[in-house]
Amino acid sequence: MMNRMIPVVAVAALLLAGCDKAPSDTTKDVTKAREEASQEVTEARQDAGKIENKANQKVATAQQAYAKTDSTARAKLTQAESRAMISKAQADFDVAVAKAEGRNNIAVEKCDAFKGVDKKACLSTADAAFTADQAAVTAIRDEALVQADQHN
Questions:
Q1: Which of 15, 71, 137, 145 has the most beta carbons within 10 angstroms of its beta carbon?
Q2: How do residues 8-56 score in pLDDT, each as one tens digit?
Q3: For 119, how many CA atoms within 13 A lie in the half-sphere containing its CB?
Q4: Which ranges constitute the DSSP H helices of the chain?
Q5: How many CB atoms sit inside 10 A of residue 48's CB?
Q6: Sorting pLDDT into bands at 50, 70 and 90, what band is 97?
Q7: Distance between CA atoms of 18 and 152, rounded to whole angstroms?
Q8: Is the dihedral of CA 135, 137, 140, 144 positive or negative?
Q9: Exposure pattern of 91-108 as b/e (b: 16+ CB <10 Å)?
Q10: Separation CA 74–CA 22 (nearest Å)
Q11: Residues with Cβ < 8 Å from 74, sequence gap 6 or more?
């Protein structure tokens, strides 16, 4: 996850340096930010897929055990399902965060086309949208974690 933050830190450092870019440079940067965001989302989806597959395998194993025995297997199945729900919630959260970061990077790059107050307003809007995205994905994840906890 830290490797994914390096481009974000680099972009933030450039923004703080106060350099104004030509529109063609901004277009290139926006395109690059879109490509990076797409790559990060793809990687997050792949990671999520692996996590979900492992969780599903554990559920399948627990389901087989349940078919052979009664109460012990039921407890194992419920536990495995809860853990799978938690794993899925975390994996979905990682994908959603990657998407939000990608959208934010693109929005910040677009702000380079502006100067002065317009640029500050653009960056404020991008920051507010990112904060809202983070809050939304956190709320969704937390709700899924509550459901997993109550699954027992």
A1: 137
A2: 545 555 554 555 567 788 899 999 999 999 999 999 999 999 999 998 9
A3: 13
A4: 2-16, 23-68, 71-111, 116-150
A5: 20
A6: very high
A7: 54
A8: negative
A9: bbbbbbbbbbbbbbbbbb
A10: 64
A11: 66
Q: How far apart are CA 107 and CA 102, in angstroms?
A: 9
Angstrom CA distances, 14 to 8, 18, 21, 84, 129, stand at: 10, 7, 11, 41, 20
What are 128-143's pLDDT values in tens digits?
A: 999 999 999 999 999 9
The two tokens of residue 105 are 């990077």
**The two three-digit tokens of residue 102, written as one number:** 């990608």
Q: Output the furthest CA–CA distance in the chain (Å, rounded).
A: 70
107 and 129 Cβ atoms separated by less than 8 Å: yes
69 is written with which tokens?
């025995």
Regarding pTM above 0.85, the answer is no
145 vs 19, more confident: 145
- Helices 116-150 and 71-111 cross at an angle (nearest 10°) of 180
C-alpha span between 70 and 130 (Å, rounded):
48
Amino acid letter, residue 19: C
